[in-house]
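seq:
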Amino acid sequence: MSQIKQLPKLIATEADVTPIVLAAMANTDDPRLRQLVASLVTHLHQFVAETRPTEQEFEFGLRWLAALGHHTDISNNEVVLAADVLGVSTLVDLINNDGRQGETMSALLGPFYRGEAPVCAAGDCISRAGTPGPSLFFSGRVTGADGQPLVGATLDVWQASPIGLYENQDATQADFNLRGKFTTDAAGKFAFQSVRPAGYPVPTNGPVGDLLRAQNRTPMRPAHIHFIVSAPGHKTLITQVFFDQAAALANDVVFGAKQQLVGSFIEHTGPHPAYPDATPPFYTSDYEFKLVVGTPCFPVPPITGKQAGGHE
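struct:
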């Protein structure tokens, strides 16, 4: 009697889909890739089974995802922005940087880090085109978690202008305006001059803006300055220092504000002997960054340049 060959099972019902898809990927050579994709498929299929989208809703969702790519270019990364406003970036940040080893808390990189900022001397001004707004004199120290100063640490600094635009968004700003790299001295100290930052809305002319409007959410971020702080033999710190009202901090559209990162920005309405050339009103701020021992690792810049033209 001839043997009847058993054919592979084909999908017949909803319940068949997930196990057959998982089985198709089970031979992945990279164990971490196998784990990640298997978990992604499992949870993604569970989401679909739970929410039961219509075919029209599924098509709309695919168009929204495709639009993230269409709105990403050298000066705007809509994919990173989507991860930020969905809280994914902050969740990944906290999984990898819990702040429990005595280090300064981290904060998300954001979609406007360019990299390759100009190297500056201590005390230099990063406002390169006379950006209007009250002056800010920012200083501080970089130490290890033990409080010992870190000599030669690097601080990569960038911020939005007082009207809430990064230079890559604004054709009126000089290239690399409000961006710079500084190095700590023998006492671990650093200092630079800038302008007081302001809160601003994230870009809303793409699919992320459509989502925020549909959710009746504010697009605003509180005023802040970005820092990447690094030193040999220490884990790189990506963070932000905030200055804004409590409500603005609590309603940060990308969920990035943390209590430890709220800085003290002091307003001076008259002359100050430590800043004889400053025109009142101006602001001063001092902040200490603490790094833990580890291997320096630097992020890939989400954007690479500045587009010509008007505001985005």
